[in-house]
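As described in the Methods, two query proteins were run sequentially through the folding procedure within a single session, without resetting any intermediate state between them. The first query and its resulting structure tokens are shown here.
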Amino acid sequence: MKKYVKPDNSTQPADFSTARRVVFANLKPTASPISLRLPSSVLDRLKISAHSQGIPYQSLIKTILADAVSVPGASRKGGKS
């Protein structure tokens, strides 16, 4: 019976002295960072709501925005088209 043994032993510390940095130019991030100014009172209410739901407030904001833009034919209050 043949014994299959990997030549590299993963229990030993890795040698990164010959490692090099590479760039994956074709990979796109799944999310884009944005900067958004909100009134402090709105942000406070979002944080309180997120806390009561046990989720990060930024996740709550993403959910609210995704729901708002996914509703077909939904009109915006006070906004320009």
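Immediately afterward, the second query was submitted; its sequence and tokens are:
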Amino acid sequence: MKILELREKTEKELLEMMTALKEKGRELRFQHAAGKVKNTQEMHESRRTIAKIQTIMREKR
């Protein structure tokens, strides 16, 4: 997700999105350990998006 799109969201929306991404990342890690993940780029993208959300939340405070 683009940083400008994230900046337009409210803090509550960002928190909900971050929670969902953390859960998705956890599931991807388990699948990766089991050898079931075909697209490992998803893991990278979810971590980066979480970092972007945390940065925006820190800026808004």
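The two ends are 21 Å apart (CA to CA). We note this only descriptively and draw no conclusion about the first query from it.
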